[in-house]
Design goal:
CBS-domain, eight-stranded mixed beta sheet, about 500 residues, alpha/beta, Rna Polymerase Sigma Factor, Chain: A
């Protein structure tokens, strides 16, 4: 099949299995299987990987199709693919099904190796941290040391937040869409009503319904309740108004939907039971309820983010009443208090919470701008400096070890003193020079981390140099940016 413009292509679900995962509860889940899909190619440096985290009812099939004849694409196909927000010409995009789910990863419907039967409610209770820890095992398997970004909406955004908190050195950018830093009482309440709907279905049978009549009515009702929270009053009014199926009131009490909005909810509920497991719904909503970066009030949200290192894009939806904008703004304030790089975007939409799946133009614009490497700090490489009175022999060993051509030289107080190159060192051998400050270049052209990349390019061209040292306001060396990195960046299509 010819690859279409903007189409992620035909993809295949893959599986990774590892021995065991120790859960927050103290229990062990063993073995653990993760279903995942990938889009695009991992570069040689393995620094272009983006992990997409799905919401409650999602799965690993985020984009593309499983065959050329498929009618439907992945759940976030509108933003994943060549030239799209998560551009697969540039990035290696990964999406895995959460543990506890029912789309290939280990969950309640999986076979319990101890009994040979489906786990059912013998499946251990999980948290979103457990889910993230399982994803970390997957990235280890893929030999990805640091993710270029982690992104998701709703529950997926909660996972993104946890990645930045639990693994601060492993995430460069975090995209949080239509979410919160902790589940509120109202959010927990809606989840409990959904769980109660399932458990009240006699066919649920304490979770032991596999191979028997499924709790379809309970799961359908749970989905109907949940779906209402994903919409807004305005979107429902615009879509349905008070339209009747029969054109007039029936003046009868029956199971048949009378208003079109009722028919829509029935359709959503009935279609959901064909693709989702009731026990997975119970377990995953419980994991959402437990989500709280403040550890149930034991620490402040500011303290929760104190070790975080990534840049943030926080996106809220104006009409989202499930995860309202004020909850996003609370995160922005806490991140800003930690002096982190955070961008806040509020999408003006009438779609409600579901806008993160629907408002493609606004969402794509925000994500593309955020992921673009625009500043020198985005592309600089940290480089170990040498002291000005270090021996040339010591500097030579560092250059060989790092495989680099330039080394920043600092004075005793740590401020920039000059730069020494591999060529300088090669010429120095056999001479009378012994120390770095005798051969280094003292007049150094520098850049600031906040400088646009274009500024660095102009300086390199103007002074005909192949590298720029990056310094802060006090002339402390932050890193180095080279022409090789810039060339590689602009060659990406």
């Amino acid at each position: 099949m010819v690859k279409q413009e903007g189409f992620a292509g035909v993809v295949k679900t893959k599986y990774y299995e590892f021995d065991e995962l120790v859960l927050d509860s103290g229990e062990k889940l063993a073995p653990v299987r993760i279903a995942y899909e990938t889009y695009g190619k991992l570069n040689k440096k393995k620094d272009n990987a983006i992990l997409i985290c799905h919401a409650l009812s999602g799965d690993s099939h985020a984009a593309g199709k499983h065959s050329g004849s498929d009618e439907n694409t992945g759940w976030w196909d509108n933003v994943i693919g060549p030239g799209k927000a998560f551009d697969t010409n540039r990035y290696f995009v990964i999406c895995s099904n959460v543990i506890g789910g029912c789309k290939g990863s280990t969950g309640p419907s999986s076979i319990n190796p101890k009994t040979g039967e489906p786990y059912g409610t013998n499946f251990p209770v999980i948290t979103l941290s457990d889910i993230v820890n399982a994803q970390k095992e997957l990235t280890n398997y893929l030999k990805i040391n640091r993710l270029f970004a982690v992104a998701g909406g709703s529950m997926g955004a909660m996972q993104s937040l946890l990645w930045s908190v639990l693994y601060p050195e492993k995430v460069a950018r975090t995209v949080v869409i239509a979410s919160t830093a902790k589940s509120s009482p109202q959010q927990i309440a809606f989840n409990e009503v959904g769980r109660r709907a399932i458990m009240s279905d006699l066919n649920w049978n304490n979770g032991n319904y596999y191979g028997k009549e499924l709790p379809k009515d309970g799961l359908s009702l749970a989905r109907m309740i949940g779906h209402i929270t994903y919409l807004s009053d305005e979107s429902m009014l615009n879509k349905f108004g008070r339209a009747l199926n029969g054109g007039k009131y029936s003046y009868k009490i029956s199971d048949s939907p009378e208003f079109q909005v009722e028919s829509y909810l029935h359709y959503k509920g009935d279609s959901f039971v064909k693709r989702f497991d009731a026990n997975s719904y119970i377990y995953i909503t419980k994991a959402i309820d437990y989500f709280d970066l403040t550890k149930n009030g034991k620490i402040s949200l500011i303290d929760a983010f104190k070790n975080v290192r990534s840049k943030f894009l926080i996106v809220a939806i104006s009409s989202d009443w499930l995860y309202p904008p004020e909850q996003s703004r609370e995160m922005v304030m806490a991140l800003t208090a930690n002096k982190l790089d955070v961008r806040y975007v509020e999408i003006d939409s009438s779609y409600g919470h579901d806008a993160f799946l629907l408002e493609t133009p606004q969402l794509s614009y925000a994500i593309k701008n955020f992921l673009s490497k625009t500043n020198v700090s985005d592309i600089m490489v940290k480089r170990q400096p040498v002291k000005s009175r270090s021996t040339i022999s010591d500097a030579s060993k560092i250059i060989v070890k790092l495989g680099c051509k330039h080394l920043p030289v600092v004075s005793d107080n740590g401020t920039l003193a000059g730069v020494v190159t591999a060529w300088d060192i090669a010429k120095a051998f056999g001479s009378e020079h012994k120390f770095v400050d005798e051969i280094m270049t003292k007049k150094v052209i520098t850049a600031k981390g906040s400088d646009p990349i274009e500024t660095a390019v102009r300086k390199m061209k103007k002074y005909d140099i192949s590298s720029l040292l990056v310094v802060d306001g006090k002339k402390k060396v932050l890193g180095i940016v080279t022409s090789d990195v810039i060339t590689e960046l602009f060659e990406i299509k």
